[in-house]
């Protein structure tokens, strides 16, 4: 879809899709099935219902919900009105949730009935909040506040005159190193997500895109724009379940899907089933998939893995340029973007030297416009006119970027830098390992020691010594974990990302195997 610069907004793109191929399917979620024309009509009517209840351009509408049609309906209706959707992580509660709501100051809060208990740990709701709307079979009140039913539909209204730089969504970070930051995501950024991600995946007319990722995350939301821009249909499923994933994928009739690396590791660790080859999917966008699992996905599942680098704040900046990928690499800089690897002073480092990845876009509003009501954080992130990703990477002479670590996860052991990601890649390549997270823990000698939390795929689990031997053959001696602890599962966010801060805080315990106490000497 060719879209003029001034028309890179959700309502303009939706109307263009409805006009060009209005009878083609655009959305399937639960019992809801809509063509593009029906989606445009529903959006105009729901925007009218929002407006009748007092929602105006510039207002924020917060939503706490699982993957329901009302979330995408509210996303589209807010865009139609010039309002901003604030989809809140359904797992957020207590101080984190209170911070998000007070920072965003929504005029309306929509809550799924089964998630009302998330509000119980909040001291008070923000003064800005005028209305509570319920989804499902909800009570009439909460703390003496009335809860109105989510509006079904109203009189259709014309779209507001929104611009590509206007906020469409406010997406909150996980807040693992400080208060959650509200990432201001403009209409233009979502358009470019749809165009760039769709191009990287080869999405075309008639494709069916399946996601089970949460709709409070940019990955799932921008899949909706991928469907719009590329004349495809988005199918939104329930939260990821390894035991039911293939069954749901087959039922969706999808040709493209979206996963995270941890999900791929879990799926590969399970016993084979007929359903894993009964689907129609040809490609999966699956960032951070261990390189050792790429051929497994192709040979066992018949799915090509696409690796790429993008953040809530950015877009698909690094990926399969010209359709070419290289195992173990994030990719090369995609058209429309620029990237550098810099030191702590923002000076570009030579190829082959690790540093922080900084990025920028050629097109206006392809990135976030900043952090909501956090000007200092915005200035810090965009210092020297580059967005600082916080990722430690290395670039080779041919322009390929390799991820090493998040800067905060970097491990320094005996004067050597250890990539936790590289250690994880090696460990998850062991046939009896389903998932792993590697973190730094304090050393008696200063700096760090390497600790691995391992989820086994077999019973009994492999011995720690077996894993050490596996690592010795594939890693420098200083990167081989000293500490290994087997766990039933890893703490993850609702997006499937491992919460390493929890593991760092847990550290070494009585359950932890210590290589040095076991008297194991490494080969050098």
Overall 3D shape: globular
Main pleated-sheet profile = 7 strands, mixed
Mean pLDDT: 94
- Assign the CATH topology of the domain at 5-20 and 31-186: Rossmann fold
- The CATH class designation of the domain at 5-20 and 31-186 is Alpha Beta
**Sequence stretches where pLDDT stays below 50 over 5 or more residues:** none
| Rg over C-alpha atoms, rounded to the nearest angstrom | 23 Å
Distance between the termini: 57 Å
Q: Hey, roughly how much beta strand do the residues contain?
A: 15-25%
The secondary structure category is alpha/beta
- The CATH superfamily of the domain at 5-20 and 31-186 is identified as ANL, N-terminal domain
CATH architecture of the domain at 5-20 and 31-186: 3-Layer(aba) Sandwich
Total strands: the figure is 27
Proportion of helical residues:
25-40%
Number of helices, where a helix is a run of at least 4 consecutive DSSP H or I residues: 13
Strand order, largest beta sheet: 2-1-12-11-13-14-15
């Amino acid at each position: 879809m060719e879209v003029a610069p001034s028309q890179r907004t959700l309502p303009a793109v939706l109307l263009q899709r409805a006009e060009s191929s209005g009878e083609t399917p655009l959305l399937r979620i639960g019992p809801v099935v809509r063509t593009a024309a029906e989606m445009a009509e529903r959006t105009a009517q729901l925007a009218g219902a929002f407006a009748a209840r007092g929602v105006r351009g510039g207002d924020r509408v917060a939503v706490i919900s699982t993957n329901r049609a009302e979330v995408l309906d509210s996303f589209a209706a807010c865009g139609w009105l010039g309002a901003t959707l604030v989809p809140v992580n359904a797992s957020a509660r207590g101080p984190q949730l209170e911070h998000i709501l007070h920072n965003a100051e929504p005029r309306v809060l929509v809550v799924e009935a089964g998630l009302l208990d998330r509000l119980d740990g909040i001291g008070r709701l923000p003064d800005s909040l005028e209305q509570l709307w319920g989804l499902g079979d909800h009570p009439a009140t909460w703390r003496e506040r009335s809860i109105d039913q989510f509006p079904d539909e109203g009189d259709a209204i014309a779209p507001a005159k929104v611009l590509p730089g206007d906020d469409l969504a406010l997406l909150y970070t996980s807040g693992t190193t400080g208060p959650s930051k509200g990432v201001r995501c403009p209409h233009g950024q979502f358009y470019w997500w749809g165009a760039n991600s769709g191009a990287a995946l080869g999405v075309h007319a008639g494709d069916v895109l399946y996601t089970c990722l949460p709709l409070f995350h940019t990955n799932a939301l921008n899949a909706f724009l991928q469907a719009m821009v590329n004349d495809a249909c988005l199918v939104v499923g329930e939260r990821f379940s390894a035991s039911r994933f293939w069954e749901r994928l087959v039922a969706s009739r999808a040709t493209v899907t979206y996963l995270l690396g941890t999900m791929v590791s879990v799926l590969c660790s399970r016993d084979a089933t007929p359903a894993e080859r009964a689907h129609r999917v040809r490609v999966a966008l699956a960032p951070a998939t261990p390189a050792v699992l790429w051929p497994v996905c192709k040979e066992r599942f018949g799915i090509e893995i696409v690796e790429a680098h993008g953040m809530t704040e950015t877009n698909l900046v690094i990926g399969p340029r010209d359709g070419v990928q290289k195992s173990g690499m994030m990719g090369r800089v995609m058209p429309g973007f620029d990237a550098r690897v810099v030191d702590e002073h923002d000076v570009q480092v030579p190829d082959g030297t690790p540093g922080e990845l900084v990025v920028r876009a050629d097109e206006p509003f392809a990135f976030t416009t900043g952090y909501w009501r956090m000007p200092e954080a915005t200035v810090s992130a965009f210092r020297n006119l580059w967005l600082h990703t916080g990722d430690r990477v290395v670039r080779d002479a041919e322009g390929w970027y390799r991820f090493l670590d998040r800067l905060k996860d970097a491990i320094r052991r005996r004067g050597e830098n250890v990539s936790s990601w590289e250690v994880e890649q090696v460990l998850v390549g062991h046939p009896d390992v389903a998932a792993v997270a590697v973190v730094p823990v304090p050393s008696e000698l200063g700096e760090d020691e390497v600790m691995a939390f391992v989820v086994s795929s077999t019973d009994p689990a492999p011995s720690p010594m077996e894993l050490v031997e596996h690592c010795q053959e594939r890693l420098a001696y200083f990167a081989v974990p000293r500490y290994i602890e087997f766990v039933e599962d890893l703490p993850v966010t609702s997006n499937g990302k491992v919460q390493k801060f929890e593991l760092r805080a847990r550290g070494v315990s009585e359950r932890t195997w210590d290589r040095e106490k076991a008297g194991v000497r490494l080969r050098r």
